[in-house]
Amino acid sequence: MVTDNHDQRFVAGFAFYRPIRPSVGVIEGEGNRLYMRTTVYANGLFAIANSDFALAPGFFLYNQGPARQIYLGTLVRYKFRQESKYTGFEKGAAVSVGAYLRAADGVSASILLEMARYAIGFSYDFNTSTFSKATGTRGALELSLRFVNPNPFYNTASRSRI
Question: Phi, psi at residue 6, to the nearest 5°?
């Protein structure tokens, strides 16, 4: 979730994929049927009063047949530049740092840089399960790019920049 630091925001949702469970096979009528996949998520941004800091906790649950993954973690966000209230030339900016625990499997450390409507994030997964013997606890570097509209540093409720 990308937003300004002045208020509390919370989002939750549910999604499901392949409710008809199509068959996977070369010959019609033969093969295995795909499991339906469900996703449940919740995240928020909770400003710390009288500061430029906020906490951004999150929870994700993915379930497909016998497979399940649970992510739980938080980012600490610091807003280091406020959007200009008058000219709009000074763009809002924030940086977030934190980690997510992937239940019984690993940890993902993350950093996110937000500049006006754009955000770039880097994260690295560390494997902590028994599979770490094979991987040497090495994981994967991930890069994310986002464009957010409307500008999260712009307060649409009062139609003024915050």
Answer: -90, -10
Element at 132 (helix H, strand E): helix 132-135
Strands 67-81 and 93-102: antiparallel
Q: Please give the model's pTM, rounded to 2 decimal places.
A: 0.74
- Beta bridge pairs of residue 94: 79, 114
* CA–CA dist 41, 74 (Å, integer): 13
H or E segment to which residue 133 belongs = helix 132-135
Distance CA 128, CA 105 (A): 5
Cβ-proximal residues to 93 (8 Å cutoff; 6+ apart), any chain? 79, 80, 81, 113, 114, 115, 116
DSSP 27: S
Single out the residue of 76, 8, 73 nearest to residue 47, CA to CA. Answer: 8
Q: 13-24 burial, b if ≥16 CB within 10 A, otherwise e?
A: eeeeeeeeeeee
Q: How far are the Cα atoms of 5, 17, 32 from residue 86, in angstroms, in the given order? A: 19, 46, 61
Q: Tell me the per-residue pLDDT of 35-92, one tens digit each, with 9 for 90 and over.
A: 899 999 999 989 888 888 999 999 999 999 899 999 999 999 998 876 655 555 567 8
Residue among 95, 61, 60 nearest 77 (CA)? 95
